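Q: I have 295 residues here and want to know how they pack in 3D. Can you give me a structure?
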Amino acid sequence: MLTLLSRERFLQQEPMRNHTTFKIGGPADYLILPSSLEELTRVIEILKRYDVPHQVLGNGSNILVLDGGIRGGVIKFESAMAYMRREGKTITVGAGALLKDVAAFAADEELTGLEFACGIPGSVGGAVFMNAGAYEGETKDVVARVRAVTSDGKIVTYAGDALRFGYRKSIFQKTEEIIAEVDFVLRKGERKEILAKMEQLQVRRESRQPLEMPSAGSTFKRPTGHFAGTLIEETGLKGFSVGGAQISMKHAGFVVNKGDATAKDVLTLIEEVQKRVYNTKGVKLHPEVRIIGER
């Protein structure tokens, strides 16, 4: 692999706590940082040739990496895969770009439709993978096409219904293909109005979410007819802690890292919350955060 990548882009035994917003996680055997779509296809070919398992890490914002770390390779896109270009009402974006940066780019280009994403910390690839959403907007609303790399290193394109978007779901959770490039189709708008809406949403986010502490975003999916944070707060669990993991005092739908949390702390807390909410409210909570790695 070092014949293809420099030592700065092929790291061994790299702690995943340095690459997730939760600041939690054991080491990955290999952290691979490809700089282009062509390089990514070659990396996939090499990993397959030597039967090395691999997975993709976006911005690490919706992920809990377990304390035992990750066996095999972890592919992460950085600035070289964060390009953005406009053609008409379409913005083509590398999967490594941050969704909030794409929203800002769209605003500068006077294109509307991505305002909901201005505060979402994840990468474009992660947003498509999970159909990320906020404030009544979802990634599926603005995605037209996705180019991905198969396990054989081939490039395939998905569009329309083939993307199989649902609540926090996409086709890529089943195919395990690597999202590489996304086309967003937006609408013409007025820059002043777009920026005003983004500012309004950002103020709402900052006032309601514990952005000052490490977390993976919303911990639980929204149960039908309820809000997870409300159920947790009504069960008396706001501020409840296990080790360094805590239910946020600001928003009970978030588990935060007080500074020294382990993945085991987070999992134990999640399980306790699920049990108490079900016993008290009769509602099952399911994690929204993606859990990867070994215990």
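Q: Anything worth noting?
A: Residues 263-281 form the longest helix (19 residues). The helical segments are 37-49, 99-108, 124-130, 172-175, 191-208, 228-234, 263-281.
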